[in-house]
Amino acid sequence: MKERALITGGAGFLGSHLCERLLDDGLEVIAMDNLLTGDLQNLEHLFGVEGFTFVKQDVTNFIHVAGKLDYILHFASPASPIDYLELPIQTLKVGSLGTHKVLGLAKDKGARVLMASTSECYGDPLVHPQPESYWGNVNPVGPRGVYDEAKRFAEAMTMGYHRFHGLETRIVRIFNTYGPRMRLNDGRVLPAFMAQGLRGEDMTVFGDGSQTRSFCYVDDLVEGILRLLRSDEVYPTNIGNPAEMTILQFAEKVRELTGNRSKIAFRDLPEDDPKVRQPDISKARKLLGWEPKVGLDEGLRKTLGYFQGKVAAADGRQ
Ligand code: UDP
């Protein structure tokens, strides 16, 4: 009998890639999403594929899934700084109430749960790069607090279910990831730069652009997550690409790729914007034999075509 997985946030950027990969690996997949920030277009190619089902539901309410479940991957959450500003309560609810519902369902089904956590648990980090043992520097009452604290609560809740109920749990801390199916207008840096580059607009660099991020291509991330799912590791594990760069360097890279010659326009730095971010992936290397394989140039090239299509559609050229 085939293994069966539920993916919450299945219509999102990461969720949809996970659905596709698990179907390819021979599992039955149920994607659940309330479509608040997810998009059915991300799953359109999977409708009609044998073993795939979509359920439109908000996971902060009681969830029922008929039949057995071997795995639950909890990826439902708004996930960009603009989304947290616009959806603060929903972000808090899905990380707390949604996580509770997911863990309850897993307990009922005897399923293994993988919780999508985030590098945001480290906040504006005082340790660099960030190993899993670092407890973070998070402002609970700032604009990003709704996401950071929800995810920290989700980690605590997951460990609670593991310790008290003996539930099989896994926690992945995801660092900045990019690739096809990111939302064009989610405010994140890559969609913003791609859209600006392709439209020939100024590229909006926040602050002086000296803040750093480390970008991982989505296929690498999915591979790391699935290795973690199959492993025995209960404590959080960083999955990300340690290739760190400043946002200004990143803007220049995307500008070059899109062939845009217009200028860089500096804008105010958002509140609590982390100054540095780079995963320490020693644990994933050792434990999972995993490391990213797709370099930034290759990953951006793979992503460009997707954004060209999105920008053309948004601008009514398709
Ligand atoms: N950023 C930027 N211009 C934009 C959007 C974002 O300079 O149009 C910066 C943002 O201030 C942050 C970095 O890019 O320092 C990454 O932002 P993103 O929203 O992608 O996610 P974060 O890593 O902050 O969660």
Explain the overall architecture.
The chain has 318 residues and is of the alpha/beta class. It has two domains: 4-177 and 218-239, NAD(P)-binding Rossmann-like Domain (Rossmann fold, 3-Layer(aba) Sandwich); 179-213 and 243-278 and 294-314, UDP-galactose 4-epimerase, domain 1 (Alpha-Beta Complex). The chain is built from nine helices and 13 strands. It has a seven-stranded parallel sheet with strand order 3-2-1-4-5-6-11, sandwiched between helices. It has a two-stranded parallel sheet with strand order 7-10. Strands 8-13 form a two-stranded parallel sheet. The structure holds uridine-5'-diphosphate. Uridine-5'-diphosphate is lined by residues 80-81, 176, 187-189, 192, 204-206, 211, 213, 247, 270, 273.
The largest sheet, given as strand count, sense and whether it forms a barrel, is: 7 strands, parallel
Number of helices: 9
Helix content: 25-40%
The total of beta strands comes to: 13
Protein topology:
Elements lengths: L3 E5 L4 H12 L3 E6 L18 E5 L14 E4 L6 H6 L1 H22 L2 E7 L26 H21 L3 E6 L2 E2 L10 H11 L3 E4 L5 E3 L1 E2 H13 L6 E3 L4 E3 H12 L5 E4 L14 H7 L7 H19 L4
Parallel strand pairs: 1-2, 1-4, 2-3, 4-5, 5-6, 6-11, 7-10, 8-13
Antiparallel strand pairs: 9-12
Bound molecules: uridine-5'-diphosphate.
Q: Characteristics of this structure?
A:
single chain, 39% helix, 2 domains, 318 residues, binds uridine-5'-diphosphate, alpha/beta, two-stranded parallel sheet, seven-stranded parallel sheet
In short:
39% of the residues lie in helices and 17% in strands. With 318 residues, it is of the alpha/beta class.
